[in-house]
Amino acid sequence: MTKLACGRVCALFLATLVGGCGGDAGDDVSGPSTTGSIRVTTSTTGDDLDPDGYTIILDGTQSQAMTINGSVTFSGLGEGSHSIQLSDVAVNCTVSGENPRTAIVAAGQTRGEDFGVTCAAALYDRVAFHSSRDGNAEIYIMNVDGSDPVRLTDDPAKDAHPTWSPDGTKIAFTSDRDGGGIYVMNANGSNPVRVTDGRDSHPTWSPDGTRIAFSSFRTGPSEVYVMNADGSDVVQLTSGGSNAYPTWSPDGTKIAFYTSRDGNPEIYVMDADGSNPVRLTDDPEWDIFPSWSPDGTRIAFTSWRDGEREIYVMNADGSNPVRLTNDPGNDQPWDIRPSWSPDGTKIAFTSYRDGNSEIYVINDDGSGVTRLTNNPAGDHDPVWSPTR
């Protein structure tokens, strides 16, 4: 073979390796891969699992639907950092680890990101309360007829003032443990988490379950504060006098509370951001412990105005106060509150009418008083869970 022929064969061979036959050597040259993938996996455990599944959001722009136990893959991603978020998670479910989180993509590789989700069971048609029946103040729940009391907390410190989250999956409460503060636990008593640190009390959930209002002595006299349900973003709403015992309106736009800013404890209402406080009651005797009816039209409260601590109901604008209880005992000691049933037909409260602090329920027109607890120790602070 001549040198010319050999050169043509070699050139053809090289062209085939690099660019294929019939083309220039520089055509269709593929370099190393510059993209990778992220495979996202979810694993969900617990009770009342989210039936609608989740959404995976990539870099705040791309999204894919995700089952509660499954995986999806995002391909063709550039090298470097990407943001991954598991969203549309039900309020009774908690994502473990960081969310959103950063995933580093390497060229030609698939990065795995696993999201573990735990869902808490919701409890319905229960009354939570605190009791010292086992020698120390603890949180209990019972059926709405008073049967089947179950102890949820077990700590040497005092646990009191329970309140249900709107979906029935969690209970916030006040505790003296670790120096005092507000805790949030699952409705079955598991996983108590401290969300405030200090002399904070009487938590109450916003109707959407994202915020908690509470009373605190952190700056001196008692003031009303609000925070995210995880304890972040604390904001002081009141200032001046002693302000305490907040309760949200059902639409979440207002908070009722009692205050001594005018020299005598009276019921006020303010916008949920603390603005526009309006006085609802005006009596020489104390009016305290407001509780908003589920339909937002009425407020139950405690008053000394007739010589005894009794339960009253008034319109949400403060008009037409009506006395519901009428007993020589003290229907509302200092550490107790009226609490509406979810359907607005009944009110739970604490009374000493039988010589001991017990929990009772009364119809919203003052009829049909029924005793729910019967224990030598004190039972206090009833609050209704949601109903199905």
Characterise the protein shown here.
This protein is elongated. The chain has two domains: 37-119, Carboxypeptidase-like, regulatory domain (Immunoglobulin-like, Sandwich); 126-384, 6 Propeller (Neuraminidase). The protein contains one helix and 32 strands. By secondary structure, the chain is mainly beta. A hairpin with a 6-residue loop joins strand 22 (266-271) and strand 23 (278-279).
Q: Identify the overall geometry.
A: elongated
Number of helices: 1
Going by CATH, the homologous superfamily of the largest domain would be TolB, C-terminal domain
Number of domains: 2
Give the strand line-up of the largest sheet: 4-1-8-6
Structural class: mainly beta
Q: What does the largest sheet look like?
A: 4 strands, mixed
Strand-residue fraction? 35-45%
Helix content: under 10%
How many strand units?
32
Radius of gyration: 31 Å
What's the CATH architecture name of the largest domain? 6 Propeller
SSE blueprint and pairings:
Blueprint: H1 3-18, E1 35-46, E2 54-58, E3 62-66, E4 70-78, E5 80-87, E6 93-95, E7 101-105, E8 110-119, E9 126-131, E10 138-143, E11 150-151, E12 159-164, E13 170-175, E14 181-186, E15 193-194, E16 200-205, E17 211-216, E18 223-228, E19 235-236, E20 243-248, E21 254-259, E22 266-271, E23 278-279, E24 287-292, E25 298-303, E26 310-315, E27 322-323, E28 339-340, E29 346-351, E30 358-363, E31 370-371, E32 379-384
